[in-house]
Amino acid sequence: MSERDSNTGDAHDVTPYAPGAGTVRVDDSGGGIVGNEFAEVGVAVDHSGNGPRLRLEDYRTGRVRNLDALELETIIWLPEERLTQLLDPSTTRWREEPDR
Amino acid sequence: MTTTVPDSARATSRPDYAALIEPSRVHGSLYTDPRVFADELERIWYRSWVFVGHESEVPESGDYVRKSIGPQDIIMTRGRDGDVHLVFNRCAHRGNLVCEDARGNANAFRCPYHGWTYRNTGELLGYPYNKGYGGKGNLDLSLGRVPRVDSYRGFVFASLAEDGPTLAEHLGAAAGEIDRLARLSPEGRIDLGAGWLQHRTRANWKLLAENETDGYHPQFVHSSIFSVTGSPIGPLYSDNSTAVTRDLGNGHSENDLRPEFRRHGETLRWFGTSESRVPNYVARMREAYGEAAEDILVEGAPHVMIFPNLFIAEIQVFVIQPLSVDECVQHSTAVQLGGAEELNSRMVSQSIGSVGPAGMLLADDTEMYERNQRGLEMRQPEWLDIRRGMHREALDEDGYRTGAATDETGIRGFWTHYRRLMEVDT
Predict the structure, then answer these.
(1) Is A89 on the interface with B (CB under 8 A)?
(2) Options 2.30.42.10, 3.30.70.120, 2.102.10.10, 3.90.180.10; which CATH number does B52-152 get?
(3) B110–A contact, CB cutoff 8 A
(4) Which chain B residues are Cβ-neighbours of A96 within 8 angstroms?
(5) Residues B21, B325: Cα–Cα separation, whole Å
(6) Which CATH number does the domain B171-422 belong to among 3.90.226.10, 3.90.380.10, 3.40.50.2300, 3.40.630.30?
(7) What is the pLDDT of residue A20?
(8) What's the pTM?
(9) CA B315, CA B270: separation in Å to the nearest integer?
(10) What share of chain B has pLDDT > 70, as a percent?
(11) Mean pLDDT lowest among B191-195, B202-206, B238-242
């Protein structure tokens, strides 16, 4: 098993930042910015689809990821050590291998 | 090539503290000699127990605040384990500061220089482009951890020495003064989360530590705030006062104002208010403590200097942070008590009035500290006199040396402990 497979699997359902592309209907009741000195992420519930999903935006790069309910539940149940592995920068964003 | 200083030269380069500290006077060079300051860092600040922060400043998992131990930048964090951790603010890679913000919430930190990440307890989580290190998890590195961390009623102390006296041994009788503060809360809970003001002060840290329980200066230095506010505090520090100055041992000292407040027997006089203005607080105190509430409300809060850097001044807390022989920072915050909302808003207002940017108390003291530092640079006379009240000291029923309200008993206690620590060879 490669290093990468053992940690994140494929990076799927990630759309590059495209301002003005499509209409995002954001729930204005529960959104906001989760930010600290290390990262800033916009968080909103997006209702533009047939059902709600969580829209996450990395404000420092513009990269967006949408997460549905099952994906969110999966994150909640992620074992602590798996989350810790994801926080190793060379697991995800800063690795030598290009994205497939 | 490496050079080492011969032991004999090192020995002679250290000041002779026994010759500089006498029972009734101390030498001026103790406040101005950079060698003394270097010695103090090694023998006091990086060895003895030093107050760092309060657990209430990091209430939630992932909370962190930047703190200090002298010039050392320390991050106080609340881990997922619920415990409070102290780590040095220095990346294990190239030594950059990892945290910049004064406070925040983060389970993991990322160094801005090369992107190394750490758990908020100090564990290294990873580094970018791991092939340069032969893969993941190949470095046995972490943020520096403070060797000993302990707390008392939420007050977090650190010792950079692996061993030595316990915190309980260090605090000794001073712990009882923290208890006195806590029992002013109907919930027995102190909160120091109101935020800290910082005042950079061009003076040696010891001038501040000595002044905190010097009952001789208030009538002069603080006469303006006493006259403007009509405060009853001024007369507590006079020859007619029944208040006492107490050497609590280990360098700790207090101005015990209780005899004066007992003499008047008025609840909340210590706070300059009356029961009718804080009715819910008084009701909750009586509910929580029953008959004992009367004494608590009459006797009020402690005025205690806990060696070397924590000063509890009734309604506010000061922390002394030395930076160099002639510079320090005074950190101050309003005490907040659990379940005492009526008191808390008043304590914030009073703190702003006394230590805020236009406050009248700390500015007066700081003017004296900076003038004092300047005056100490004069060549004559070489000594500072600390004999006031020596002839009228006595041991109280608990065996602590006690002087009159305006006596320098606390200052002498400070120097006794200081000398003991400074004479130890490392």
Answers:
(1) yes
(2) 2.102.10.10
(3) yes
(4) 129-131
(5) 17
(6) 3.90.380.10
(7) 44
(8) 0.90
(9) 10
(10) 97
(11) B238-242
